[in-house]
Design goal:
The chain is mostly helical. It has one domain. Helix content is 72%, strand content 0%. The longest helix has 18 residues. The chain is globular and about 30 Å long. 21% of the residues are buried.
Amino acid sequence: MKIALLGAAVITAASAVLAAPAAIASPGSFLEEISINGATLPGKTPDQMVTAGQGVCRDLRGGVTVLDEMTAVEKAYAFNQGALFVSASTTHLCPDFAAG
């Protein structure tokens, strides 16, 4: 009986993982999050901020550490919200990186 229940639990868990939707990049939710958190880039348009966020993803995939990327964003855009900007980027523009 216990083996049957364990088998059913494993099948149920596997089905849930396989049926889960894939993480999808969302520029709209990225812009919303950085706006709510006061992490918009000074003097940049929404399109420029999305491009900068995609650059964060590219840098991280290329091996830059998260801390180094936060520092680089703060220096490049002369503001102190690098942590929030990088977090929003990974969550909404490269969710595969955040999940990995």
